[in-house]
Amino acid sequence: xxxxxxxxxxxxxxxxxxxxxxxxxxxxxxxxxxxxxxxxxxxxxxxxxxxxxxxxxxxxxxxxxxxxxxxxxxxxxxxxxxxxxxxxxxxxxxxxxxxxxxxxxxxxxxxxxxxxxxxxxxxxxxxxxxxxxxxxxxxxxxxxxxxxxxxxxxxxxxxxxxxxxxxxxxxxxxxxxxxxxxxxxxxxxxxxxxxxxxxxxxxxxxxxxxxxxxxxxxxxxxxxxxxxxxxxxxxxxxxxxxxxxxxxxxxxxxxxxxxxxxxxxxxxxxxxxxxxxxxxxxxxxxxxxxxxxxxxxxxxxxxxxxxxxxxxxxxxxxxxxxxxxxxxxxxxxxxxxxxxxxxxxxxxxxxxxxxxxxxxxxxxxxxxxxxxxxxxxxxxxxxxxxxxxxxxxxxxxxxxxxxxxxxxxxxxxxxxxxxxxxxxxxxxxxxxxxxxxxxxxxxxxxxxxxxxxxxxxxxxxxxxxxxxxxxx
Amino acid sequence: xxxxxxxxxxxxxxxxxxxxxxxxxxxxxxxxxxxxxxxxxxxxxxxxxxxxxxxxxxxxxxxxxxxxxxxxxxxxxxxxxxxxxxxxxxxxxxxxxxxxxxxxxxxxxxxxxxxxxxxxxxxxxxxxx
Lengths: 472, 129
Hints:
The complex is a heterodimer.
Chain A: H1 4-7, H2 42-54, H3 76-82, H4 85-88, H5 100-117, E1 121-123, H6 129-146, E2 154-158, H7 164-171, E3 175-179, H8 189-195, E4 200-205, H9 218-227, E5 231-236, H10 248-251, E6 255-258, E7 278-280, H11 315-351, E8 367-370, H12 372-378, H13 382-391, E9 398-399, E10 408-411, H14 419-438, H15 440-443, H16 457-462
Parallel strand pairs in A: 2-3, 2-4, 4-5, 5-6
Antiparallel strand pairs in A: 1-7, 6-7, 8-10, 9-10
Helix pairs in contact in A: 3-11, 5-11, 6-7, 11-14
Chain B: E1 8-9, E2 14-20, E3 23-28, H1 30-36, E4 39-43, E5 50-51, E6 56-62, E7 66-70, E8 73-80, H2 83-86, H3 89-93, E9 101-109, H4 115-128
Antiparallel strand pairs in B: 1-2, 2-3, 3-9, 4-6, 5-8, 6-7, 8-9
């Protein structure tokens, strides 16, 4: 397929801007040569992007069981609400009395998210999950510092954690202490007790964990951390499994982020944009960014960690998430979690006949297959199976995560798929499984039906070609 | 999977080949390369850098994951196998030929295992996962 630069024709243009009717002011530092932008008509441009879109795969194309990402269907009513002019055509510096509706949207979203997570205050600023984690880490840091407790420099992270956890803690200036998981895939309580000391700033944890298992010792875990003077941070990436049923706040967590682009059905991937609101208990509230819609001005505003993003975050994503919450209501939110867990167990029960599960017990919203034994016997790796699944029409599951499972495939069907879709997906897995048994070598080269065949990842990483030169 | 007798190993899956008492080559083991899968990137220190036993001196990236490479010894980087940067696949082909760095002025070492003890360690790790 031609690049947009290759389609460019000197002199082609589109007249979408009206003639300028105000005096033209050019700053003194104007460039001497025009940038070499592609020149196309609107028609050509539109076809180019449509052609690109046809080569992608999204939730609107088919089953997308990307574990840990909660690729649920995004209801169209969300977009309809977000395109209302009263939401879409505003400016963040407009006088407050002209955007009362928008303030109400944010207030409600804050309230609902606080209720679902069991927190007291919420900031809508963070623009992604990892950004939320970083914000949470900054809150924890500010809290300890405000008490003059400057020994607390360490954040405990289990080895099964999302990679963003240690990254966010490090970005916030903490030292990360990694603890190994116990034999059942959950937190090793003894290992946790050993590292919980007076230099512990806090713990980052997701529950259910990245194996899709609910940690039954969660109350004990948060108590151990609290007893040592640490703060418990909940990574909300897996909230879809529990929302409306149990609350991180009731598990003993003090601070949490929520991925609106996962559990709350806003666009995910392709730039989203994402949104990762952060909730916290009352004792952390003074440290939240000040851009919060509140009835009364907060006391101690100078304790705030400051802004983590401009204005109020990705506002139109908040509109979509609020639409989703209002559509579901108090009964619908827990129904999401029930069905997400039911669907994952339905698929796991069938797939484990072919592919061993890493931890064989009822799962929450996702589960992890371990293909180590298959790789040993047949040479077919998790990567090969992921590529092979593309040929049978489904998006591959997450692969090689969590890191504690060697040949991991992590499957998360989400609640928005029908039984028929899941049955078809199981059939697709079965086809790949049969190929492994009969002609395993075929999978080494898969996919065969894609727009491109297996990419040479080493060359792509070593010698990426990401420039276009007109003269070549 | 093999672990040559003449090398020493550490539990973070690096091997060490002593050239004399205070000079040694360092690389990652066959088990490490096999677990990581096809390597696409290697980040190496520079000659003259100090390395510390138990701390990272570089990192490797595969199609699966990025991972620190931990130094089994404290000392000074005498030379760097710069060819690995252009051909990280060499580590997958021959983990014990593909040395990362040579360290001299070695003052301290981490807990070292011989081939047999290291093989047992790997088996234990495999059975855990």
